[in-house]
UniProtKB/TrEMBL annotation:
The lineage of its organism: Eukaryota, Fungi, Dikarya, Ascomycota, Pezizomycotina. The keyword Disulfide bond does not apply. This is C2H2-type domain-containing protein. Coiled coil: none annotated. It comes from Aspergillus pseudoustus. Keywords: Metal-binding, Repeat, Zinc, Zinc-finger. Pfam families: zf-met. Residues 90-113, 114-136 form the C2H2-type domain.
Length: 256
């Protein structure tokens, strides 16, 4: 152990040159030098200093001292200091800003860093956060398809399931497309003006090729959901119910 420039060891005894005394053990040396008024003492480093100024200079420079610039707390490692600043002073590292209260800090994290308040994880953009938030939703929407035992967190999740052809009712992407086309024709709606896309968000004009993608978009984008899409959702539910009635008694999945 490096005891600094003021402690000497002759192989047997220790000598504190500032106190000018000999000690037969390190423990004896520490127990006096720790409390003496003849010099300053750093407990963490067990070192003596000529003056309070010298001790202060040591604390500023030594790697074993990590001073919090907000409250002057002395942390043992740079990581501990960073954790202290982040948690005690609500420090945002990317913005180099501290916050006085947990509430304003949380609001900042949500608004600027797209943080999920459930798991405190931050996301690159609002879209990624929205996708992530699905994870916290309960799976309590049961498939509209008759005799299908799947449940979903969102309507778009159910549509993805139907489009993938996994619905146990036998309804698939084609049924959805037909139902949407009939709905539009009956109600005089156009769901897309964008060439090459069958669907489009009526609020922000983002184009999509599948109903699931359109619903996924409006479920997250505040203000994009509208009455027509609510009606269409009801229509698809009815279509699913009708689909089971239309089924021939010995349905084999083959269209004839
Ligand atoms: Zn001493
Ligand atoms: Zn020290
Ligand atoms: Zn602090
Ligand atoms: Zn920030
Ligand atoms: Zn989360
Ligand atoms: Zn299903
Ligand atoms: Zn939109």
């Amino acid at each position: 152990m490096n005891l600094g420039p003021y402690i000497e060891w002759n192989g047997e005894d220790y000598r504190c040159t500032l106190c000018d005394r000999y000690f037969n053990s390190r423990t004896a040396l520490f127990s006096r030098c720790r409390y003496t008024s003849q010099h300053d003492w750093c407990e963490r480093c067990t070192r003596v200093f000529r003056s309070p100024a010298a001790k202060q200079a040591h604390i500023k420079a030594a790697w074993c001292h990590n001073i919090c610039q907000v409250c002057d707390a002395d942390l043992e490692t740079p990581t501990e200091r960073m954790n202290h600043i982040k948690t005690v002073h609500y420090y945002c590292q990317p913005c180099s800003r501290t916050f006085a209260q947990a509430e304003t800090f949380q609001k900042h994290n949500v608004d600027v860093h797209h943080m999920c308040v459930h798991c405190k994880q931050s996301f690159k953009n609002e879209n990624n956060l929205r996708m992530h938030k699905q994870k916290h939703l309960p799976r309590n929407l049961f498939c509209y398809g008759t005799d299908c035992c799947y449940a979903f967190k969102s309507f778009s999740g159910m549509l993805i399931h139907i489009e993938s052809g996994n619905c146990m009712s036998g309804i698939d992407e084609e049924d959805l497309d037909v139902a949407v086309a009939v709905f539009c024709a009956n109600n005089d709606y156009t769901l897309s003006c964008t060439p090459g896309y069958r669907y489009e968000c009526m609020a922000c004009f983002a184009p999509f090729n599948k109903p699931s993608a359109l619903y996924q978009h409006v479920e997250g984008a505040r203000g994009c959901y509208n009455e027509i899409l609510v009606e269409l959702r009801c229509e698809l539910k009815l279509m699913c119910a009708r689909h089971s009635e239309d089924r021939p008694p010995f349905y084999t999945g083959i269209a004839f």
